[in-house]
Amino acid sequence: MSPVTSRVDPVALQWPGTLLLILAGVVSAFHVGKATAVMEALRQDLSLSLTTAAWLLSVSGAVGAVAGIGVGMIVDRLGPRRMAVLGLAVQALASAGGAWAAHPTALLASRVVEGLGFQLVVVAVPALIAGATPVRSRATAMAAWSTFMPVGLALALLSAPRLAPGSWASLWWFASALAIAVAAAVARLTPELPRLASVARRDVARDLRTAWHARAPMLLALLFGLFNAGYFALFGLLPSVMQKASAIDDLPPHLFTAVAVLASAGGNLAGLALIARGVRPLTLLASGFAAMAVLSYPVVLDMGEASSLSVAASIAFGAAAGLIPSALFAEAPRCTPTEGMQGLVIGLMMQGGNVGMTVGPPIAALATAAWDGPAAAGVVTALGVAGIGAAMGLQRPRRGGMPSPVQGNG
């Protein structure tokens, strides 16, 4: 057996490697978003029911809601680079299999496997960034990672008309080839973290108790869940909002949906810049949740001729909400109770986020059906207020966290 070191080389991963890992996340998010981009073609070609179509869109979140902590523990035990490469390979194979699907059940099964690959990537990559990035740039690198989801989703929406002009399957083949290429680059150009001796003999129940008693990892999971629930609840209504706006009736709705999603990436980058300047993640969390609560109302209200204001509000909503993932990923290293638990903490946070992604849209849909559009804004407002309260808990002293890479006032 190869010797096991007790500490990680803190300068093993520099910015080129970090950007490659972020690209791995973007490619994984592309896999998630490709079904949304060609849903109408899928429904016509495979005669999908509304229920099956909904599952195709949400299955990645459902897989993560069940498997997030387990994936995190596997990442800690087997190594984040190895699991990131495996996750990309799994997505590539599942996407290739999905391209051959001639029945809804086969396509749904391929999406379940893709969802597992996606979870491996989105847990392993931030664990690798947190463990191998120099302390002085760790918070910035983690905040940069938070851009992967909106960028990947927007690229899927924008590229689908060109990549899949005749058949949705061509988009599946392209996504498969892209994942293989990035997996090869990650395997070749990024370092693996030395395994800690303590990881190999970790007690699962003890690690979970440690995370529970440290309190901060549980708050991260709660905060990511509240964010995703509000974000996806509102953005689930976005296509109809875009269609109502008289200013965009003659333009492709997916274009404006992509712009609103990309605004979230802009918010991620703004959060990154602010953190690099010393603004506390807590400040970004409170600001982001407050803005989500306020901006949700003009997004969903029917404004008739002035409905272009709804479009502007949705873009502002996306940008403000983008501050939250930047802050959460920047906080994750500081909220890790002991060395070797990066994967578990990230997995726990992702599991909370996936639960929110899964339950938020149905709750908003039920509220809208019962009380019309403003009720969805009421749901998002309640989630925003809860997020501010949970964020306040992060400023209390925490036991056992790794040294914070963030200094300064916000």
Give the gist of this structure.
With 410 residues, the protein is an all-alpha fold. 77% of the residues lie in helices and 0% in strands. It is globular, with a radius of gyration of 20 Å.
Descriptive key words:
410 residues; mainly alpha; Growth Hormone, Chain: A; 77% helix
Question: How would you portray this structure in words?
Answer:
The protein has 410 residues and is mainly α. The protein has 2 domains: 9-191, MFS general substrate transporter like domains (Growth Hormone, Chain: A); 202-400, MFS general substrate transporter like domains (Growth Hormone, Chain: A). Helices cover 77% and strands 0% of the residues. It has 18 helices and no strands.
Q: Using the CA coordinates, give the radius of gyration.
A: 20 Å
The CATH homologous superfamily of the largest domain corresponds to MFS general substrate transporter like domains
* Portion of residues within helices: over 70%
Largest sheet: none
Distance between the termini: 48 Å
Tertiary shape: globular
Tally of contiguous helical segments: 18
| DSSP strand count | 0
CATH-derived topology of the largest domain? Growth Hormone, Chain: A
What is the strand and helix layout of this fold?
Blueprint: H1 15-37, H2 39-46, H3 50-78, H4 80-99, H5 104-132, H6 135-145, H7 148-163, H8 169-189, H9 197-200, H10 204-214, H11 216-235, H12 238-244, H13 253-276, H14 281-300, H15 308-321, H16 323-331, H17 342-371, H18 373-393
